[in-house]
Amino acid sequence: MHRQPRRFPEVSPFRFDPTRPKKPAALVLALTTPGAMAVNGAGQSIAGTAPSLENKNKMDRISCLPDSILCDILSCLPTKQAVSTSILSRRWRHVWKDLQVFDMDEEQCWKYYDDDEQQHWKYCDDEEQQARFDSFVNAILAQRNADSYPIQKFRLNCGVVSQEPISTWLDAVSGPHLQELYLDIRIYNPAMGAITFPQGVFTCPSLKSLVLKGDININFFDVDVDLPSLKNLKLHCHFANPQELLSGCPALENLELNLQDRCLHLPEIRMPRTLKSLTFVDYSSLCKGIRLREIYTPSLEYLNLSIENLFVDMAIEVSVMNFPNMVEAHLSIVGCAENVGWVVLLLHALSETKLLALKDLATQCIFRAPGFEFPAFHRLLNLELDLPPFNKSFLLNLLHNCHVLDRLVVNICTFCCMESEYNGPTPPTMVPNCVTSHLNSFEYTGYRDTEDDCEFIAYLLQNGLVLKTVTIHFKYKLDQATKDYAVRKLSAIPRGSAICQLIFI
C-alpha cells in the first residue's frame, strides 16, 4: 500500500508579523475584473454572504489563470501584499512562492491599527522594527521556491543594527539570474560603521540595473568587479570610492553618481566611455589638492554636473572631450568661482546640445574668463541661465551664438552678493537672428524694476517678431505699489509680435 509522504505544517511569513492589516483579501479586488468579488478561505464573499453559482464563476475567473500570469500580477505589488494573497483560498496558498520579483520595505512591517475613527501606522523603535522586518524577510527567502524560480529583481529599503542579516540576504539573492538590485540601507547602530557587501553582488553576469543608497561602503580593495551586462548604475552612498566599480562595468550606459562624503579623498575618477547619460554630484571638497574628474564619453547624450568648489586649494579639475550627440546639459557650480577654467572648455564641448542650463555660479565662471568668446550653438533650442549680476552684453553675446533658440529663461540670483565684471567682447549692434526669427518664449525671474531689467525686456518685446509669451516673475521683496507700476510700464511697451502675451507672476 502506497503511503502518502508526511507533510509538515508550513510556517507563514505572517507568523512573524501578527499585526498585519485585517483585510488583506481586499488586495485581490484590485486584480479581479469589473464586477468580480473576492472570497476568503471558507468560500465566503468579503461581505460574508454565500455567493451564487453565477457569481462564483465570475469570482474564480482570475484564479483560473496560470501561475505564471498570477506571478506577473503579484510582481507589481509590494512583497508583503503579494504574500498576503496566500490566505484567500487554497488556489492562492503557494502562488507567491514562485515569485521572482521582490520589493522589501521595512515600512510594510510597521504596526497597523484599525479603529472606528482612523487607520494609521505606528512608528516603532529601531530594535523592535528591525526584529520584525528581519523575521519577515527571513521567512520569505526561506519558503520561496528558490531552486525553480531564482530571483530576478530585488528591492530592499530598510535600516539595520548589524551586518549579518544584510550579508545573509544578499548571498541568497545574488546569482547568475539576478537582473535588477535596489538597496537603500540606513544604519541604526552608530558603532556599526558602513555596510560591506559580499563579493557575489559584484559578479552577477546578468545584472542590468544596480542602485546603492545610504550607509553603504563601496571602497573596494581585494574585490574583483565583473558586471558585463550592467547598463544602469546609481550610487548615492556616504562611503563611496566608485572607481573600481566603474572599471568593472564595460557596458554601462546610464550613471548617477552622488558623492556627499566631504572627507573622502578621491584623487581621480574616470567615467566609462560607454556612457549615454551622466548625473554627477561631487561634494567631496574638504580634501586638499587638485582632484581629476575625467569625462571622455563620446556617446554622451545627457549631462547633469554639479560641483562644489569651496576653497581655492581644494579644487576639482574636470577634463572633457567634445560631445557630438549631446541633447541636454545642466551645469552647476557651488561655492566659489576660482580655479574653474575648465568650465569654459566644457561649454565649448557642449556646443551641439539642444538644452543648456547654467546654474548657480556657472555663469560667473564665464564672466571671469578673460577674452572669452561663446561657441556657436547651432542646435540649441532651450537656454536657462542663473545670472549673479545682470549684464546685457553677456546675454546679447550669447544670443548671437544661439542661432535657433526657441526658449530663454533668465533667473537673477539673489544668493550671490559678489559683483563680477564681464570680460567678454562688445556685442554686435544688430539684433540676434534667434530673437527675430525663432524665439517663442521668454521667462524672467527675479525682476527688480531696475533700469537694466526694463531695458532688456523692452529690447526683446520690440525685436521678438515671433514671440508668443513673455513671463515676468517679480522679486519676492517688491511691494505691491512697485509691482503695479512695473506692470503698467512694461505693458505699454510696443511689441514686435502681434500674438505676444505678457504674463506677470
TrEMBL record:
Domain of life: Eukaryota
SMART domains, per database record: FBD, FBOX
Database matches in CDD domains: F-box_AtFBL13-like (cd22160)
Domain F-box residues, every copy: 59-113
PROSITE patterns with a match to the protein in the record: FBOX (PS50181)
Pfam name, any one: F-box
InterPro entries: F-box-like_dom_sf, F-box_AtFBL13-like, F-box_dom, FBD, FBL13/AtMIF1-like, LRR_dom_sf, LRR_FXL15/At3g58940/PEG3-like
PANTHER family, alphabetized: EMB|CAB62440.1-RELATED, F-BOX/RNI SUPERFAMILY PROTEIN-RELATED
Protein name: F-box domain-containing protein
